[in-house]
Amino acid sequence: MGLPAFTEADFVLSQEKRDEITAGLTPRQKFMVEHWMNLHEVINRGDWDGMDEYFNVDTMTYDNPNRPDLGTYKVWKTSPQGLYKTFPPSIYRTLKAWGRGEDEICVLCHHHGKHTGGPYMGVQPTGNELNVVWFSWLRFRGDKIDHIYSISDVLTMLKDLEVIQVPQPVDPYK
């Protein structure tokens, strides 16, 4: 997915943009998406204690086929912290949202940063931009996040960060 041009200011969502993202959702679904967008603001500031209020910290689970090591909230929380240090400014935003019932949402999100803060997967800082698009399916228990399943465009991320080289076929079936 090609992202349109953006600035860091685009990661602070106006109420008009938030309303556009949540249009068509039920009030409960809108609450859950707003909760997620508010969490992004907290993470974008590096407020690691503040992010706890958005989760059922004792029961929250995380699934991602690219990161099976991040199963619990306590362990998962170290990932945005590491990204914040390695890719300043490490900032997140929601692009689209969908809802199902009273406890599930799906969000399309964008994470941006620059590889200037430290090594990543053995590669020293290159200054390259990080622009990862990902989907998360979130399940709530009460008013807090209880489960996240995420899938992201890791291949493009690793290519952009020069961790791996990826051949770009003209026609992959020839």
Automatic annotation (TrEMBL):
Coiled coil: none
InterPro entries, per database record: Cyclase_SnoaL-like, NTF2-like_dom_sf
GO biological process: polyketide metabolic process
Cross-referenced Pfam families: SnoaL
PANTHER family: ESTER CYCLASE, POLYKETIDE CYCLASE SNOAL-LIKE DOMAIN
This protein's name: Ester cyclase
Taxonomic path: Bacteria, Pseudomonadati, Pseudomonadota, Alphaproteobacteria, Sphingomonadales
